[in-house]
Write a structure and sequence with these properties.
Oligomer: single chain
Largest sheet: 10 strands, mixed
Structural class: alpha+beta
Number of helices: 4
Strand order of the largest sheet: 1-2-3-4-5-9-10-8-7-6
Strand content: 25-35%
Shape: elongated
Number of strands: 10
Order of helices and strands: EEHHHEEEEEEEEH
Radius of gyration: 19 Å
Helix content: 10-25%
């Protein structure tokens, strides 16, 4: 699936010396599951840290960072691509000889669109040494943090599988060094790369400095 916009070429990185993206030493360790975004009290999106109820009782410290809003170009791209299935149905109705092919193509695109929408981030949560990416349609993607972070980080260079412009830049990409990264990005600037048990994850929080500090500092436990 291809959107209109693509991630820009990568530039230089200001990663700390010696930073790496190694796997966590114990990625399967038990932990209290972080709450869904709907469980976070109002106003938490503007706080660097907030106390929210944990599923095991009591309160746990969570950092919740909203994703950056879409750019105008990405909004246009998302709107345009969203209309493609409806356009195929209209073609099928006005041109019966192409009806089966157009309807088949619309059905094929539907699950891909659904996947892309669920990958699109609305917020990033850090809790219990986990990164939880909250996507649309109640999607939730959890990764074990290894403590490494790179900010500012350049955008990946090449898409392997995913969306570039339709509800964000999401999926798997190659960075400037040829490393495969997974992206949950709403804009292609002010990016942060964090190391996890499943490789580097690229995110675009609205407050990237605070997000990076939460990962590398003592606020994650």
């Amino acid at each position: 699936m291809r959107g209109i916009a693509a991630l820009a070429p990568a530039g230089t990185s200001d990663a700390p010396p010696g930073a790496s993206f190694g796997a966590s030493s114990n990625p399967r360790a038990p932990y209290p599951r972080a709450p869904y975004l709907t469980d976070v009290p109002a106003g938490a999106y503007d706080a660097t840290m907030t106390d929210v109820p944990s599923e095991s009782g009591g309160a746990a410290r969570h950092n919740v960072f909203p994703a950056r809003p879409f750019s105008r170009g990405m909004l246009l791209s998302t709107t345009f691509v969203s209309l493609v299935p409806a356009g195929l149905v209209v073609i099928a109705l006005v041109q019966p000889e192409a009806g089966v092919a157009m309807l088949g193509l619309a059905l094929l695109l539907t699950p891909l669109f659904h996947w892309a929408v669920r990958q699109s981030p609305i917020a990033y949560e850090i809790a219990h040494r986990r990164l939880v990416v909250h996507g649309r349609l109640a999607a939730r993607h959890t990764f074990v943090l290894d403590g490494t972070v790179r900010y500012p980080a350049p955008p990946p260079r090449m898409r392997l599988f995913g969306s570039s412009g339709f509800f964000g830049h999401t999926g798997w990409f190659l960075d400037a060094e040829g490393t495969m990264v997974r992206a949950f990005v709403t804009r292609a600037e002010d990016l942060v790369v964090v190391g996890t048990d499943r490789g580097p994850i690229v995110v675009s929080p609205a407050r990237p400095e605070a997000f990076a500090e939460a990962v590398r500092g003592g606020t994650v436990r």
